[in-house]
Write a structure and sequence with these properties.
Blueprint lengths: L1 H17 L25 E9 L13 E10 L4 E7 L4 E3 L5 E3 L3 H4 L10 H16 L5 E5 L1 H10 L3 E5 L1 H9 L7 E2 L6 E5 L1 H8 L9 E2 L5 E2 L3 H19 L5 H13 L3 E2 L3 H13 L5 E6 L5 E6 L2 E6 L1 H12 L10
Parallel strand pairs: 1-6, 3-13
Antiparallel strand pairs: 1-2, 2-3, 4-5, 6-12, 7-9, 8-9, 10-11, 14-15
Helix pairs in contact: 4-6, 8-9
Amino acid sequence: MKRILALFMTVLMLLSSLSPALADEPNPIPVIAKNDISPTPSGLHHYMLICVDSWAADLTKSGSHTDGLILVTVDEFAHRVMLTSFIRDMLIQRPDGKFGRINNIMDLMSPKTKNGIDGKQGIQMLVDTICTHFDLDIHDFIVVDFQQVENIINAIGGVDITITDREANYLRNYPISATSTTPSLSGGGTYHFSGHSAVIYMRIRKVHTEEYLHADGKVYADTQDYGRTYRDRKVLSSIAESLSDISYEDALKLLDVIISNTVYTNMTTDNLLSAVDLAMGLRGVPVEHIRMPIEGTYEEFPYAGMATKQIDFEANRKALHDFLLDSFVVVDEE
């Protein structure tokens, strides 16, 4: 009996030593009160793009998780277009004060109603969470699903994407249609992607990206969610490049396509037309991008049965604000 008890105690000790993080609590997260969020500088405009993890999202019937979070920032004075992507498994403080993953906010914060759920309230909670964690004042947002992203890309005639051999092998094994790229996919290189194949490319997680310059000044490849956020930014950049010479009339037609392929937006028609005017004035401007969190400011942190990443929010706020405000105005004193 003593031997059995000793063996039992040994097993318990081994289990506890193998997974100490399961019992750990996350570090306090220094969220910012809404009233203390820094105002957006004049000339800077934020638009939050939210992609739902679904091919046919319905915010009134079921909870929705987010697959992609990208902030589009336009600086009309400095003539800059910037993309900031946020990883899905970032550990945050939810609006109810509990810890959780950022991609679960829309689902958890969407209250049930008599006939379904109020998914719109969950969207606003998600945007508010991004604002209080990164000291951003975001008002405008657009929510889409995978099918709608596909439709929008098809409406502009597809996008050009340069891929690696490893990415090509993944896509060929997926498989995507032989006619969904031009030329037909064979190996690494630049291809013209249809909407469906572009969405599949954006969702790749298990294959490293091409090597690229990161915010820490080093060049290397990404994988998992970091790779997915990079591919999201890459496709959006390619879309912007393909529209560099679009006419105002065609831009309005594209706006109609976007409106008809949106799960939900809080932007009015006037808001959307103003955004089109801004975009027309910045056609051909190189798209800059950054990922939150930046390298060296996060650690893996299993929490409540979830794989999450605990990040240094203060370091990332500084990095993000340095990126967004890295502009200058030349003053003629003569």
